[in-house]
Amino acid sequence: MTNNNHDADVAFIEALAALLRENDLTELQVKREYGDSDCLNVRVSRMMQAAPVAAAPAAAPAPAASAAASLSAPAAATDDPAAHPGAVSSPMVGTVYMQAEPGSPPFISVGQQVTEGDTLLIVEAMKTMNHIPAPRAGTIKRILVEDGAPVEYGAPLVILE
Fold it and tell me: Where in this chain does the record put each Lipoyl-binding domain (predicted)?
């Protein structure tokens, strides 16, 4: 591989990283074929964390800004479903289904009591229907996803209290 190809590949990878950030993606994979025996296979991924974002405003140097940040930080923490102690997160990337098949009743509804192991919903990944069980007994307080919606790994699905 010549230096020109190397420079072009580096620029291509940097452009993929920028695309990842700009579109708030967690992973991107691309394969470029240059010929029969020369190709570039690139996978760019990043870990998304909500906690550092919430902690950043509290480090403001001005006293007035610190007071304002400390007042808004608890509100932000309660508004973030992923930070809720009862959040049930998606164990995989896929598509959410709220019922076993179209036309049948949904597995859960707000206010419903569930026991440990009850199916909360289904996440389809690679044509496999994965039943997401309740990690413990409790009451469904919020449903954070819609039927047929795509979900990312770690995305909050429901709030169980």
Answer: 85-161
